[in-house]
Write a structure and sequence with these properties.
Elements lengths: L12 H18 L1 E5 L10 E5 L6 H8 L4 E6 L7 H7 L3 E3 L6 H12 L3 E4 L16 H9 L3 E7 L18 E6 L14 H26 L2
Parallel strand pairs: 1-7, 2-5, 2-6, 3-4, 3-5
Antiparallel strand pairs: 6-7
GO molecular function, one term: 1-acylglycerol-3-phosphate O-acyltransferase activity
Protein name: Acyl-phosphate glycerol 3-phosphate acyltransferase
GO biological process, one term: phosphatidic acid biosynthetic process
Length: 221
């Protein structure tokens, strides 16, 4: 059963829906998204989108093309200047990756507790985007709340030509977003021990890696 932290309201889903509308317009304006399997995202109830992370566009891309408004855990370094109030206004969650950020954890649990969609980059930071190294945060949220995990693979062009910014795919290039089948991360025992979370992390990594391989075969990436 999904828990709602006492005295803590979930970040605005209306704001996240505004962010989704902005994201879809921006992403379709700059790139050529191709979305596969969006119907696999549960239509109602809590869900966790577990997204690989190799481009700076991954978060806005998934936020824009997902069938439901999503609240992503985003590194606090992104919340600078006017971008900070904007990100908070569209329902995104600030997280300090250098410590156990209790506020971020509480906000994320509040999203799931009220039946919302939480977006996570389980690798913790932008890298190869191959799910090779996962942090335990995803397992914690999935096991504690029982929310299904939906693997999401974002596959963009690796060509350097046409890039406006180094960390983005080339402008007007195709970006594939492939949603996988939702799955339960826990073993059904309800355990939240360190061993249980470690075992859940291994299960999650296997499912995410398999999804990424299938997505690459499906899209020819």
């Amino acid at each position: 059963m999904t828990e709602v932290p006492a005295g803590r309201a979930a970040p605005s889903e209306r704001g996240a829906d505004v962010g989704r509308r902005i994201g879809v317009g921006l992403m379709y304006g700059l790139f050529k998204p191709r979305v596969l399997g969006a119907w696999r995202v549960p239509a109602t109830g809590p869900a966790i989108l577990a997204v690989n992370h190799s481009h700076n566009v991954d978060g806005p891309m998934v936020m824009g093309v997902a069938p439901r408004p999503a609240h992503f855990l985003i590194k606090k370094e992104a919340f600078v200047g006017p971008l900070g109030p904007f990100l908070r206004g569209i329902g995104q969650l600030q997280v300090d990756r250098t410590t156990a950020d209790r506020t971020a954890v509480t906000d994320a649990l509040a999203v799931l507790g009220q039946g919302g969609v939480l977006g996570i980059f389980p690798e913790g930071t932008r890298g190869e985007g191959d799910f090779a190294s996962l942090r335990a945060g995803l397992a914690y949220f999935a096991v504690r709340t029982g929310a299904p995990v939906v693997p999401v693979a974002v596959l963009g062009s690796t060509e350097r030509r046409g890039r406006l910014i180094k960390k983005l795919p080339p402008l007007r290039s195709r970006v594939d977003v492939v949603f996988g089948d939702p799955f339960e991360a826990g073993d059904g025992s309800g355990r939240r021990t360190r061993k249980a979370l470690d075992e859940a992390t291994v299960r999650i990594q296997g499912r995410l890696t398999d999804h990424l391989e299938n997505a690459r075969r499906l899209t020819g990436r």
